[in-house]
Specification:
Length: 232
């Protein structure tokens, strides 16, 4: 099976105040299907830029970013939007739940953009909420849930799209230690039992140690690529 992600000298340069700012500098990288990777590095190291490139939210200035067999730099913005909906889902530090909607409705919302019947949407939503352990809380609004439960709803919303690739940007940043561990246990289950490829941006070594592999960025350069032991 070919790797799900291939970067070949991927470089991203932004123009600001008449100067070029190189946020990623010739990063080459391969990630296999089903891997669980932590992206680490100080603020400004290029972590979020790399995540945005992997998810098709941005395109490289030069080099190639090939994800799920597609060279993302060759796609138009419209084509990128379609590609993202087919292959990628995001989990953010902020849960981005709509406060007036129940957990069920928040998970269902992105599915309304897909050609699914109501019965098919219900099956997707209920399965996703069951996986994250919130089937009994599906009719609760965000203000009736804990922070950890809100993040679980956000993860269920991502899972309902059945993505090949889950991209998480500081998913435990707003949680206490216990809730953060529960979220990382859940991501481990999604990786090991459901085969999801997961990329997590984090500053927390405990979170990074949950992953199978750690990538360290420094000033746009890939400095360290290490394997970590699988937890049992």
């Amino acid at each position: 099976m070919p790797p799900i992600i291939q970067l070949r000298d991927a470089t991203k340069v932004y123009r600001k105040g008449g100067s070029d700012i190189r946020t990623l500098d010739k990063v080459s990288l391969t990630i296999d299907e089903g891997d669980f990777v932590a992206l680490m590095g100080p603020s400004g190291s290029g972590k979020t830029t790399l995540l945005n490139l992997l998810g098709g939210l941005d395109t490289p200035t030069s080099g190639q970013v090939i994800v799920c067999g597609q060279d993302l730099g060759a796609l138009s913005p419209r084509e990128l939007a379609g590609w993202r909906s087919d292959h990628v889902a995001y989990i953010f530090q902020a849960y981005n739940l709509l406060p007036v909607l129940t957990a069920y409705q928040n998970v269902e919302l992105p599915l309304t953009l897909l050609p699914l019947t109501r019965a098919e949407r219900r099956q997707h939503v209920e399965t996703a909420l069951e996986i994250v352990g919130l089937a009994e809380r599906m009719n609760h609004r965000p203000d009736e849930l804990s922070g950890g439960q809100e993040q679980r709803v956000a993860i269920a919303r991502a899972l309902a799209m059945d993505p090949r690739l889950l991209l998480a940007d500081e998913p435990t940043g707003d949680l206490d230690a216990h809730s953060a561990q529960e979220i990382m246990d859940l991501l481990t289950t999604l990786n090991q039992d459901h085969g999801k490829t997961i990329i997590v941006v984090t500053h927390d070594p405990k979170v990074a140690n949950t992953a199978r592999r750690q990538l360290h960025l420094e000033k746009g350069l890939l400095m360290v690529d290490t394997q970590t032991a699988l937890r049992v």
